[in-house]
Structure formats: structure tokens, C-alpha cells
Amino acid sequence: MQPPRRCLLLLSLLCHLLLSGTWADLEEAFTLRLLQTSTFQNTSFMDTECMGLLDDIELGSLAKHTWKIRFHQPWVRPALPRSDWDIIENMVKIYLRNFNNMVNEGAVQKDVPYPFVVQGMAGCTLYPNKTTQAFAKFAYNGQDFLNFCVDNATWLLSQDTNLSRCVRDFFNNYTDFTELMQVLFNDTCIDYVEMLVRYGKAALERQELPVATVFARTPSPAQLLLVCRVTGFYPRSISVAWLRDGQEVPPGPDTNTSAILPNADLTYQLRSVLAVAPHDGHSYACRVRHRSLGTRSLLIPWGYSDVVLIAGLVAGLLAVVAMAAVMMLWLWRRRKHRQMEESTSRNSILSKEA
Q1: What is the per-residue pLDDT across 287-319, written as a single tens digit (0 to 9) for each?
Q2: DSSP for 26-45?
Q3: For the chain, what are the domain ranges?
Q4: End-to-end CA distance of the chain
């Protein structure tokens, strides 16, 4: 079950191709992630999806049947010469073929029931202070399975089963592959991140202002839930806090903030909820801090929505009054015009009779 030596040679060549960058002037951390999802229906049919991401930006993916690289951003392909991308594409194809054979052989030997799903994630994070952190893990049927510890080059169990122990022992005994993993994570991955950050600077520096609204829900007469909804912001990192009488409310059982979720337009959203007693005499506000705001903060006091609603009702009432005034003026002018026509017609008749 040892993968062919050719695969290792191609991976070593990939290391050489990518070990040519220099450190970029980074102001924040960037993470490169390679994702793989392989569904094994039986020993002869397998479906694989692979994708690469830099933070939340999709760099590219593999075509489902041909395993060719599809670039999702225009600045990814120029990061390497075409010949280098061809080598990487061939390397990926060899890896997937060997991965499929190895998994199927192991599944047959261990009587693993089909179908099953294997997921893999590997990558690294580059921090502004030039420190790095690499990671690799596998999941089996949606559950964490194995983790690779880069520091001591060993595979660790995420779940203790006969199957996970067998796979762990296989990888730990496969020293060539483990050593190569260390090179890829400690050197190649970091240089690749630095290179992509340089080519994708404009996309990574994109900023979208957050839009926030505050509204209330009343689950019971004794409780009022204040909801701060923040949406449309990019990048992902954001700070949302509640203020009571101008002082920040510390995290606790009365506060609940959702995870940051993606929008369809490549921006993000979240909600923060604060439970208060109705008419408790305090003033509340939702404070939002985001890179797009610079040193400023977005402050939305509770009650602002009511003011907007009242202002909207007043504006609507004024519009109705204005329309009514226009209609009355039009009717008055039309009546006056008819009176003038009738007066002219009457005078004309009297003139003819005379």
C-alpha cells in the first residue's frame, strides 16, 4: 500500500517551485486552506471535490470528471507560470488516484461498509509577526478522524476506533510521506500564502461598510429581547457589543451573539441579542466596530427604529396631505374653467338674440 515514488518526486518538485517567495508586509493573518471531499459509493465508483481558499476567497477548484484546475480569481493563474500549474495539476491527479486506491484497499481489508465519505483539510496561517501555524486533518462520515501534528510530525487520533488506529499507524510508519508533509507545511505553504497575498492584494483589501438595525421582540410580558442585526460587511472580522447607559455590557447569560454567516453577495452578517426587563429605565445601544469604519464606531441606540417609523408615518401623512391639496387645486381650477366657459356661452347667446 505504499504510494509510488513518482508521487513523492512530483511533490518535491512542487516544493522547489513554490520556495521562491519573500516575506510580504502583512498587517493581518492570512490562512490558506485546501479542502477535499471524497464520496466512496463502492469499490469502483468515487466522487471527489477539491477547493482552495485564501481566507474566505475561493481561489480555484478541480473539475469533477477531468480533475483540471479551474481558477475562480483572475489573479491566481498569473501567480505561477503555466508550466508550473501543469505540474501541480498532474501531481494532484496522481495523488487522487493513489488516495482512492489506498482508501479502497484499506476499506476492503477492514470490512468498512460502503458508502462512506472522507474529508480532508490542510493548510497554514501566516501571521503579521511572521510566525506561522500549519494544520492537516481528516474526517470520516462527518466526524473528526485524524489530525497531523506538524511539530513532531505524527498523526494523532481525533476518535479512538479500530479504523482510526489502523490509519494512524499506517501514516506514522510511512516516514517519507510524513517528512514531505513537514516540508510542505513549514515552507511551501507559507511561501504560497505570501505569494497569493501579493497577487490578490486588491481583493483581500476590499472593504464593505456594515449596516445595522436594532429591533425588539417580546417572548413574554416580563422579558424584552433587543436584537442588533448587522449585515453587508467585509472583511469577516467584526466587533459587536451592547451599551447600557453608555457602558459596555459584559458577556453573560443575557447576551447571545450568533456566528458570522455569509451573504450571497460575498459579504457577512450576524445578530446579537440582549435580554432586558421592559421599562427598566436604562438606555441601550448597539455598537459596531469594523475595519471599514476606521477609528469610528457605528452606534445604533434602542428606539432609533421607532423614531424612523414615526418619521416615516409623518412623511407619509404629509405626502397624503400634499396630494389632497393638489387634487383640490386641480378641481377648483377645473370648476373655474367651466364657469368661464358657461359665462362666455351665455354672453354669446344674449348677443345673438339682441
Answers
A1: 999 999 999 999 999 974 343 333 344 445 555
A2: -SS-EEEEEEEEEEESSSS-
A3: 5-204, 211-306
A4: 125
Do the beta carbons of residue 99 and residue 39 sit within 8 Å?
Answer: no
329-352 pLDDT, tens per residue? 666 666 766 666 666 665 555 455
Instruction: Report the C-alpha gap between 158 and 249 in whole angstroms.
Output: 37
Nearest Cα residue to 40 out of 109, 122, 101, 94: 101
Burial of 289 (0-12, 13-18, 19+ CB in 10 A): middle
Per-residue pLDDT at 304: 44
- Residue 235's closest CA among 255, 260, 257, 208? 208
In sequence order, what are the residues at sequence separation of 6 or more whose Cβ sits closer than 8 angstroms to the Cβ of residue 243?
249, 284, 285, 286, 287, 299
Architecture of domain 5-204: 2-Layer Sandwich (3.30)
**CA distances (Å), origin 87, targets 6, 46, 343, 351:** 12, 24, 97, 105
Contact 300, 286 (CB under 8 A): yes
User: C-alpha angle with apex 141: 137 to 144, nearest 5 degrees?
Assistant: 30
CATH architecture of 211-306: Sandwich (2.60)
Q: Of the candidates 175, 1, 40, 216, which has an alpha carbon nearest to the alpha carbon of residue 118?
A: 40
